[in-house]
Amino acid sequence: MIAKTSVGRSFKGCCQYNMEKVELGKGQVLLSQGVRDYELKGMVADFTRQAMLNPELSRSVWHTAVSFDPQDEARLLREPQLIEQVATDYLKGMGLDQSQYVVIQHYDTDHTHFHIIANRVANDGHTVSDSHNFSRSEKLLRAMEQQHRLTLMKEQGYRLGIEHLPQADRHRLEMRNDVRQSLELSTTSNELRANLAQRGIELIVNRDKAGQARGVSFERISQDENGEALRVAFKGSKLHQNLGLGQMQQELGLNAQRRALELAQQRELAKAQELTISPQNEEKQLKRGRGLSM
User: 81-92, pLDDT tens digit by residue?
Assistant: First the structure.
């Protein structure tokens, strides 16, 4: 996730920009506290009234836009409540949950994002600090990505690094990266298909006239630069020399061996722990027995 925060003076300008999207059907209010979230004039008046509890604070407007990674879009469609949960966690983590706020989701881009407008004058009149807000926000976002199993920033950074490439090359590198990561997590072809499906990729086995498997291809529906649906397909060997049918089967086998070894080591460790505990239990039983005979 990416967050951009600004601290300003005018609630009217900030609220107007965000509420206009709602009025045009390009957004919706997700959460609010302490303000009338159904009309612009009332919302601005509520924010301004509380800001007067601390008239010495000239910049009382907190505005943050939080954007999700495109890789999380499919999950957010299945679990829309996750957006509200992330917003709630962000408000609490940045110390804004004890003040007035409104959270508005916009639909004007091809990626899910929401805006937080909050009052830096809290409900009890104290000032919500904006000190080191960037570093605090980044630390919080990384923690939430882990907690909610969202795309990690290092993967986002990889994609940002290839945005300048031509569209075909960008799609190829993105798919290669996704296939590699899915393969690392898999020990069977069924597991691989399931992991790829989570990234919107279909695995297709290419067969000859006799029905023999000769190779693999990967397909997904993406978007072109104009936002139109675009079918993206590559043969495994064209993505990378190690993503051909034979090489992938070999890696799945090695992954299965590693997983079996890890499970065996875990069982041995559990067995050793039981053996360590058993003599201690026997000693306790003997002591209890001696105590009863006295």
Answer: 999 999 999 999
The C-alpha atoms of residue 150 and residue 246 are separated, in whole angstroms, by 32
Q: Report, as an integer, the average pLDDT of 186-196.
A: 91
Q: Measured in whole angstroms, how far is the alpha carbon of residue 26 from the centre of its chain?
A: 23
Q: Based on C-alpha coordinates, what's the Rg of the chain? A: 27
Residue 21, exposed/middle/buried by CB under 10 A (0-12, 13-18, 19+)? middle
Tell me where in the chain the CATH 3.30.930.30 domain(s) lie. Answer: 2-155
3-class DSSP assignment, residue 207: strand
Selecting from 3.40.190.80, 3.30.930.30, 2.40.50.100, 3.30.870.10, what CATH number does the domain 2-155 have? 3.30.930.30
pTM of the model: 0.55
- Rounded CA-CA distance 214/72 in Å is 33
Please report which helix (H) or strand (E) contains residue 218, including its range: strand 213-223
In sign, the C-alpha dihedral spanning 224, 230, 236, 238 is: negative
